[in-house]
Amino acid sequence: MTSSDNLVLRVAGRPVGRYVTRPELPARLAPRPFLHPVTTLAGTAVTEVSPADHAHHLGVGVAVPDVEGHNFWGGRTFVRDRGPAELDNHGAQRHTGFQLRDPDGFVEELRWVAAGTELLRERRTVAATGLTATAWALDFTFSLTNTTPNALSIGSPATNGRPGAAYGGFFWRARKESRAPEVFTADREGEAETHGTRADWLALAGWGSPRASEAERGGGWTLVFAGATEGTRRDPWFVRAAEYPGVGSSLAHSERLTVAPGETVVRRIVTVVADGRPARDEAAALVRKAVAQ
């Protein structure tokens, strides 16, 4: 997975994330640029790439399982009245160049291509910003423009008949540990209570060590995700903790999203990456500071 276009994001000179622009991956994994490893300021990795449980999970990026029937998520495709199926329908996100490239961020142009045809053109803006001595923020905006002469329909396994599987959009595959991470929002706790709900922010808190206990609040790591625009906040959260640790923002939760020719869909997610396990009020304060910057 090497490319001369790869870059390293830094906060105050410290590396916190590596961006891979042209990964060498089989078509079945829906090749696409991604961030990995992403780390806390203390150096703890908080992403995974191609883990054994889901080889198509690629760190931090944008992945959509159904764009007009084409799979830009990777792996099997959920087919109504049939279930998961191995189909030759995978697309790829192709890096075309950087409009801006600095140590703390970049602006990138991409083409979403399937069956030899460009469906979408994306502008991706990513920035890394320091917040405190133990936390920094990843600001991730993607703008998808329909470049075809016809309307495009974006769906998910949920809109195709699989309840609870509305994944597709921004997605963060976190590091799997011996214990499932905690999940909480301002007023909810646990995977069952947070999955599929709308919340200004959502936290995923890992233990960092198999020996850590709930009482050891100083250890571990925490990711706090926030929709930073009104449109993004309308998208429910996709949450996994018990099976694997992952959080996404659902573009097509209960119904398909139609994108007219020339229309652009914009989403912005800001993620606080923190060492330790901040309490709810601390998580909320970090998010407010990150979004305001």
Fill in the keyword field for this structure:
293 residues; mainly beta; eight-stranded antiparallel β-sheet; seven-stranded antiparallel β-sheet; 3 helices; 8% helix; globular
Largest sheet: 8 strands, antiparallel
Helix content: under 10%
Low-confidence parts lasting 5 or more residues at pLDDT below 50? Answer: 210-218
Strand content: 35-45%
Largest beta sheet: strand ordering: 8-9-10-11-20-16-15-14
Global shape: globular
Taking Cα atoms only, what radius of gyration do you get, to the nearest Å?
18 Å
Structural class: mainly beta
Average residue-wise pLDDT: 94
Helix and strand pattern: EEEEEEEEEEEEEEHEEHEEEEH
The tally of beta strands, per DSSP, is 20
- Straight-line distance between termini: 32 Å
Number of helices: 3
Report a brief summary of the structure.
The protein has three helices and 20 strands. With 293 residues, it is mainly beta.
